[in-house]
Amino acid sequence: MAKKAKKKKAVDNNSTLATNRRARHDFKILDTYECGMVLVGTEIKSMREGKISLVDAFATIDDGEVYVRNLHIPEYSYGSWTNHSPKRTRKLLLHRREIDKLMGQVRDGNKTLIPLRVYLKDGRAKLELGLAQGKQDYDKREAIKRRDQDREITRELGRRIKGINA
Predict the structure, then answer these.
(1) Separation CA 85–CA 80 (nearest Å)
(2) Could you tell me if 18 and 43 are in contact, meaning their C-beta atoms sit under 8 angstroms apart?
(3) How many CB atoms within 10 Å of residue 33?
(4) Quick one: average pLDDT of 62-72?
(5) How would residue 9 be classed by pLDDT, with cut points 50, 70 and 90?
(6) What is the value of pTM for the model shown?
(7) CA distance 102 to 68
(8) C-alpha 160: how far from its chain's center?
(9) What molecular function does GO assign, one term (predicted)?
(10) Mean of the pLDDT values across residues 122-137?
(11) What's residue 6's pLDDT?
(12) What architecture (CATH level 2) is domain 16-134?
């Protein structure tokens, strides 16, 4: 008798919990890294409720370890005395060679570490950390101008294609 293969149920394999949309506007992202996060029990429960904010969050390297600061995870609604403090400093898990590489780039250039996205991967909370360089105001205006031009081009091409097909 042949055994039937069981179908795996896809449950939150890559669900995004929060994104930092402002980061891509204010910074030029040079490289991204996937980090694990050291959390306490009520933090992951609160994150699964979708209550997390990456506004004003940044990462630092202290004593050869990477920490994320100002990451706001509110207290768990059903928690009691076991609840966590919402803006505590949380340790990020990276490989040693990645930490050394980041440490060199942050120390030498005017680069910073910005959390871009928090998501679940196979039931574990992950943070996408970006090595970023700040944009000047004229760079931001140039990006907005380029995006508007691309939108106009696609709109005009759509009109021309509709005119040909009609």
Answers:
(1) 12
(2) no
(3) 20
(4) 92
(5) very low
(6) 0.74
(7) 14
(8) 38
(9) RNA binding
(10) 88
(11) 45
(12) Beta Barrel (2.40)
